[in-house]
Amino acid sequence: MTDQEFDRLMERAASPNLIPGIYNYCDRRCERCRFSERCLSNLESRQAQASDPGDPHESVATATGRTIGRAFDLVRIIAERQGLDLSKTPEEDASDDREHDERDRRAMADPIVALSRQYAMTAWPITRALWPIVMPRGDAGVIEALETIECLSTSISAKLYRAVSGTLESDFDASELQSDPNGSAKMARLLIAETRAAWRVLMEVGRATANGVPARLVNMLDHLDSAVAVRFPRAMEFVRPGFDTEPAGSNEGDHDPALAVVPQGHA
């Protein structure tokens, strides 16, 4: 990203219509979101897609790499303009890598993250197998439910990894209500509730698509939700930008465009 591109981005981010940071605590289903026109992340993604459609066969890893690279560019330019030195010695880099690897190892081994990954790895192949059965029936409710289950199956795990990983940061303050771990845990619980409702649609009389499978997965989600509630007891009090603060259509209030540009996380 050039300085000129950065300046144009900051101009767009300065729009009073935007809600800073709203994309940090959403389900990434922009097409359903009432705030899609007030989300810088969504608007920038649409603009980028229109100007450069790219390779339709591009892998998720490649696309994610481009997004992360763009985020690093933003941080670099902001730091340069504020006179901050982000350079590190090889020893500091190695120490940071070790800390990151240890934090990642501990987060992945956490029972909550492990159970959420187990759910994702169980639910995803089931949804793929159910599509050929569901589509010929043409039941809009079941199709909608299956789309929800499939879309959110990995999002729950990603949000919980982010929540748990955040508690392992050296500067984490458990007493802070408006912390990223609480926000991520709240999103996970909301996604779990939506997913459980979707599985129950498949369990209704005359619409079941697999013997006992939905019930077992709902039971898994029940256990997961209970565990998250114990670990993050105040998560549901977290106030999400936009979703918990503004009615649909509201566009008032000033904000710092830099807050709208720099994400707090990727999940």
Topology diagram in text:
Blueprint: H1 3-13, H2 40-51, H3 60-81, H4 90-109, H5 111-137, H6 140-167, H7 180-202, H8 213-231, H9 257-261
Helix pairs in contact: 4-6, 5-6, 5-8, 6-7, 7-8
The H-and-E topology, N to C, reads as HHHHHHHHH
Overall morphology: globular
Number of domains: 2
Class from secondary-structure proportions: mainly alpha
Q: Can you count the beta strands?
A: 0
Give the oligomer, counting copies of the same chain as homo and different chains as hetero. Answer: single chain
Radius of gyration, whole Å: 20 Å
**Average pLDDT level:** 82
For the termini, the CA-CA separation is: 23 Å
| Poorly predicted ranges | 249-266
Q: Total number of helical segments?
A: 9
What kind of sheet is the major sheet? none
Q: Roughly what percent helix?
A: 55-70%
Strand residues, percent: under 5%
How would you describe what is shown here?
The chain is an all-alpha fold and 267 residues long. It has helices at 3-13, 40-51, 60-81, 90-109, 111-137, 140-167, 180-202, 213-231, 257-261. The protein is globular, with a radius of gyration of 20 Å. It contains nine helices and no strands. The two termini are 23 Å apart. It has two domains: 3-87 and 254-261, no CATH class; 92-233.
